[in-house]
Amino acid sequence: KEMTCRFHKGENHADCQNFTMHWVCHRHGYDQRTYNFKFDLTLHAELKVYLFQNVQTLPPQNLSVSLMTSGDFLLTWKAADGSQGLGNALEYEVTYKREWESWEKAASLLLSNTTRCHLSHEDLVPGSNYVARVRARRGQASGFSGRYSEWSTEVSWEAPEGGLQPRNLRCLFNGADRLTCSWEVKKAIITSVVFGLFFRATRASAEEECSPVHEKALTHIPYVVQSCEIPVSNSSSQSWYHVSVRAKTEEKVIEAYKNIKVLPPANVSVTVTESQEYELRWIKHTFQYGFIKQRYQVEYWKNNQYEKVSLRKRRRPGFLFAGQMGRTVPLAFI
């Protein structure tokens, strides 16, 4: 038999939460019965499942990496047990990154009909540790569909040290008016070599230099990220840019006669005169051009005290000054 119950607006029970609804049902008389409580709404869900339209395979197995004689790297794996029956109907996504990077910034490759992936050493930053993973799904061309498997176990390797070439040159268009390019160079050379980004919008246009170049040091690796924004005025689906990063040539005009560094005087000697004075003599170096004159500066100090006294400059290769016998006086020229 059905009983009608009503919502009770009275005080909530102590063991009920504020959002708990309190219903009251009355039945006259008392006897031992079994009571069933149910909603007056039908709550259920059902689905008709087509097996090969809802495929999620197990993740690929035995992912490994090997170094090729060319210096490139080869990733290999195999389909998970139980998935071999799908054969060539599987396609794979391979992602790889440097260990310190997030997976959101990882490079992604889509592959079909193969269980191997070739990674060129030119696409890797030398001296960096990399990690890769792979996942599988039913190929779209098979007419079936599904979702990707979970990721496989990760495999890691180290890219060998390379030269001083700029690496990891990448450019991204914001879809409106700016093409942002970035690249990496070794910290060891940025103090002596200046890199620039050069670009051409068409084959016929003149090459331009992008400016300014921004720089950001990476604490995890011995590289610095440099970047520059190229303004885009007219863009279309057929637009392309040719960009290159190279060391810039620094030019400076040096006038030889304004940059002369004389060799130090030779055969320096000190003798004591009859008047108890010291006579300092040396041999000067001769120049190819007689009009170039030399001037001398003498410094002397008490031994181990290093309180230098500078004497006036002279043009002649000799000097006479008073002193006390028995005192050691080192001499230096500037």
UniProtKB/TrEMBL annotation:
A GO CC annotation given for this chain: external side of plasma membrane
Assigned keywords, A-Z: Glycoprotein, Membrane, Receptor, Signal, Transmembrane, Transmembrane helix
Subcellular location: Membrane
Pfam families to which the protein is assigned, alphabetical: fn3 (PF00041), IL6Ra-bind (PF09240)
Topology within the bilayer: Single-pass type I membrane protein
Transmembrane segments: none
Domain Fibronectin type-III intervals: 59-162
InterPro entries in the cross-refs: FN3_dom (IPR003961), FN3_sf (IPR036116), Ig-like_fold (IPR013783), TypeI_recpt_CBD (IPR015321)
A Gene Ontology molecular function term of the record: cytokine receptor activity
The name this protein goes by in its record: Cytokine receptor common subunit beta
